[in-house]
Amino acid sequence: MSYRFPRTCPPQPSCQTPVTPCSTIGTCPQPGIINNNCLLCNSNKICIGDHSGHIDQSVNAIAIGAQSGYNNQAENSIAVGAKAGECNQSDNAVAIGYRAALANQSAESIAIGSKAGEFGQGKSSIAIGAHAGTTGQHDHSIILNATGLDFNVSV
């Protein structure tokens, strides 16, 4: 299942019938809207939060939090927290925390913490802690940060 905002949704190619708004909140036509969220049939993706998973969310992707996974969230990726994985989150990537992996998180990368891996996290890299690897983290690198200040050193 997938839950989306706003109240009306465009028809989805995987659905046999177009997504239409409910006439009364709380009713659940199939497919349709539940509690102001659009329910898409056979999509195998989840998005909960205002504009989460809004544009081009792929199968098996999970976006939880306002604008998480907002644009181009790839297959099997997870974004949890406001604006986590907001733009261009690649396959099998994980972003947890406010603005974690905000933009351009590469495949198989993990960003945990507020603003961890915020801009341009490299492939198969790990950023843990607030502001860890905020800008341009290299491929196959690990950055741990406990200072709460921007920390971008990677070898």
Describe this structure in words.
This protein has no helices and 15 strands. A 7-stranded parallel sheet has the order 4-6-8-10-12-14-15, with no helix packed on it. A 5-stranded parallel sheet has the order 5-7-9-11-13, with no helix packed on it. Strand 2 and strand 3 form a beta hairpin. With 155 residues, it is mainly beta. The chain is globular, with a radius of gyration of 17 Å. The protein has a domain at 67-155.
Concise structural overview:
By secondary structure, this protein is mainly β. The protein has strands at 3-4, 32-34, 37-39, 46-48, 55-57, 62-64, 71-73, 78-80, 87-89, 94-96, 103-105, 110-112, 119-121, 126-128, 142-144. 0% of the residues lie in helices and 28% in strands.
Distance between the termini: 41 Å
Q: Which band does the percent of strand residues land in?
A: 25-35%
Helix percent band: under 10%
Main pleated-sheet profile: 7 strands, parallel
Number of helices: 0
Topology of helices and strands:
Blueprint: E1 3-4, E2 32-34, E3 37-39, E4 46-48, E5 55-57, E6 62-64, E7 71-73, E8 78-80, E9 87-89, E10 94-96, E11 103-105, E12 110-112, E13 119-121, E14 126-128, E15 142-144
Keywords summarizing the entry:
mainly beta; seven-stranded parallel sheet; five-stranded parallel sheet; 15 strands; disordered N terminus
